[in-house]
Design a protein that fits this description.
By secondary structure, this protein is mostly helical. Helices cover 68% and strands 0% of the residues. The chain contains 15 helices and no strands. α1 packs antiparallel against α10, α4 packs parallel to α6 and α11 packs antiparallel against α12. The protein starts with a helix and ends in a 12-residue tail after the last helix. The C terminus is likely disordered.
Length: 269
């Protein structure tokens, strides 16, 4: 009984680490709704690649014109990337007030709320960012992650199913679906969906990490390390393997896991 209780704690900790730290959006493989819905303009100035400089770049534009939707979305994404989640929420809330009904801003605001742990508020805002007659699979997927955080796993999976009808075999959605099953301790089903995501040529390294985690939680530690280290340089493979071992030992606290970043090689944010 003690062993089962220990496993349950480790599972819950690892599952929330994967779901909260990875990106729902995702989880690790959560698509960045704000980025995907950002409108493109022919502005001559190119935003800097460095996140800290991007905060300054978009911050100046936003302060000069709080009704500049692109600047607000870019500023919010840069704030989130640099860990300033509460600031992103506050700024995007004001931006949505200045631009009522703008769905791109609502998507960005909902994503920031989700990143900041405000699951119910995020779900409510994201519901206004698209409509039943014109749904966005990215928003559906993030809504699914907010429901998973609220413990509504069956309802979350209906959102993932809707997203997959629009974007069949989309690896980010399949990964979130796999993590949903992991949260409810259905590890075989979690592995099935994560393997489907991993088989996609579009899957990123976060999918690999999530699959390795689920395999490891089933006691197949050698296989899990093989997955997490595949095709990586030696130093990165060692870092990923060490992180995986820590998660499998249940060392991550679910309260702090949301701000811990996995040592993955690349992320499509």
């Amino acid at each position: 009984m003690r062993r089962q209780s220990s496993l349950a704690r480790a599972l819950a900790s690892a599952a929330f680490s994967a779901l909260l730290a990875a990106g729902l959006g995702g989880c690790q493989t959560l698509s960045d709704v704000a980025g995907s819905l950002t409108t493109r303009t022919a502005a001559a100035a190119r935003p800097p690649d460095d996140p800290r400089r991007a905060v300054e770049f978009y911050g100046e534009r936003y302060r000069a014109n709080p009704k500049d939707v692109e600047a607000a979305i870019g500023y919010g994404q840069a704030l989130r990337t640099t860990g300033q989640r509460a600031q992103a929420v506050a700024m995007l809330e004001q931006a949505t007030i200045a631009n009522p009904g703008n769905r791109s801003l609502l998507a960005a605001y909902g994503r920031a709320l989700a990143d900041n742990g405000n699951a119910q508020a995020a779900f409510d805002v994201l519901s206004r960012a698209h409509s039943p007659d014109n749904p966005d699979w990215r928003i559906l997927s993030v809504q699914g992650t907010t429901l998973d955080r609220l413990g509504k796993h069956d309802e979350a999976r209906r959102y993932y199913a809707s997203a997959l009808r629009i974007a069949p075999d989309e690896p980010s959605v399949l990964s979130n679906l796999g993590l949903s099953y992991m949260l409810s301790r259905d590890l075989p089903k979690a592995e099935e969906n994560l393997r489907r995501a991993y088989a996609s040529g579009r899957a990123d390294s976060r999918v690999r990490q999530n699959l390795a985690l689920v395999v490891g939680l089933q006691g197949r530690f050698a296989e899990a390390e093989t997955i997490v280290k595949a095709d990586l340089p030696a130093d990165q493979a060692a870092a990923n393997a060490a992180y995986l071992r820590d998660m499998l030992k249940g060392r991550d606290n679910p309260r702090t896991a949301a701000v811990k970043q996995a040592p993955v090689v690349a992320q499509d944010d």
